[in-house]
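Consider the subject:
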Amino acid sequence: MIEMVDQELEPLELELFLNGVFRRYGYDFRNYARRSLSRRVRRAVVREDLTSISALLARVLRDPACMARLVEDLAVHVTAMFRDPEFHRGVRERVIPMLRTRPFIRVWHAGCSTGEEVYSLAIVLHEEGLYERSRLYATDICEGALERASRGMFPLHTMRENTRNYLRAGGRCDFSSYYTAGEQQTVFRRFLRENMVFSQHNLVSDPPFNEFDLILCRNVLIYFDAGLRSRVHRLLYDSLTETGILGLGTGEALEAELEGRYSQLATEHRLFVKVPSS
């Protein structure tokens, strides 16, 4: 456990730690919200059976496997299928009619974590007859999360909650028809994965890589400080097609500088439509 006598040094240690990680590996956590980031770094210190952030930095610099474990700690993975069911109902009722007019649909799940919400949207697109002409790009900073997402395997014990969320979100079928259940795990049907592309992408440092009709970046921005949120919002805006749609988490909002460049699609949901340039 980090010694109490070192608490005054901890902010300096954290700064040195973040700079060291960036210079050694290119992962830039320097503009993440400090309170939650500090808690997660502390947990990593305990998990590695060390006594200080400085000791963690020394290990990370020399041990790439430790860095991989650290990314898992710092990249928050809190997700579920059809998380926030009312949002997904809003996607079905308000976004799908707009997507029907497009010959090919490109979707970006930015910060997709272990993929539950990517499969959720794939199911909606399938039920609405749009999946065959859709491509879902799912990105995250964490390779381990992406690897799990690409397998389409989720714990069996989560399926009861997932089924409730699916029905509340306007699901129209027997949810269990989308997966095969084993003793501990479920495997989702192969056809749902056919139009998914999982790839590592860092919202902090990587540039836009395509133009999208729909971008879902939900419950990611809350972990960034104000300056980084502004930069990521600009990235998302630049990655949308004209009249493209942006979906945010319930605790997230547009940056003030961009409010005039979107119209709100549904007041009860965080869904926004990019306003065409004049």
Notes: Residues 253 and 259 are 9 Å apart (CA to CA). The first helix runs from residue 10 to 25.
